[in-house]
Amino acid sequence: MELPANITPETKSPVIIAQEVLRAFSKCKAVVFVVGAGISTSCGIPNFRGASGIYKQKGGSAKDIFDTSVAFSSPASCSAFYKATGEMYQMAEAAKPSATHAFSCTSGKKW
User: Fold this and answer.
1) Residue 45, SS3 per DSSP
2) Is the model's pLDDT at 11 over the cut of 70?
């Protein structure tokens, strides 16, 4: 779907842009949002690969942190796995949805 050329951040407020995008979406059969972990960084939840991301904070890779064959291979790695996932859960619980989260939820409703 191509948005009208007049929808630009330089000429419209974010609210007006969102309204126009939602109007454009209403003409579509389906809309798909493709996002990554970065969608939640403004909420205080770190992404995975960024300069202050989960992998840097925990000193490992995705395999080191999330692969159960690694996580449960020793008591120390098991403890580290539960500590890391517990901290991530607490961050997610404390976070408030961003405007991007709200927009993606609102856009799924009938217009």
Assistant:
1) coil
2) no
